[in-house]
Write a structure and sequence with these properties.
about 130 residues, mainly alpha
Length: about 130
Amino acid sequence: MPLKNTIYITLGIFFIITAVVGIILPLLPTTPFLLLSAWFFANSSEKFHNWLINHKLFGSYIRNYNENHGMILKHKIISLVTLHLGIGYTIFFALSKVNPYKLAWIRLVLITILIMVTIHILKLKLIRTES
């Protein structure tokens, strides 16, 4: 196996693990890491790529995003709710121990991320049925 494939498979596995952690931690997104993993697997291992895009839990996210360039309504709602709750919690409660001079910048960055990701999710095509 070429070194490039080994590196790509390793990165694909790393991003799958990161995506799974993102299911539990609200500030860590899941879908971008799944898409990264799918890209690395598509460019290194047909076996791993097929496993991921046909996975019971993750497959529909990747297929809908790649093939239909969109999300089903349920996934949009879950994504937006967890995004807003996670970042909202962080902005108002989790940053209480941060230096006040840094706090404004951190909040500004988080609010910017919140706005940009919300716009991206809302702009994605709404898919009527799960593929």
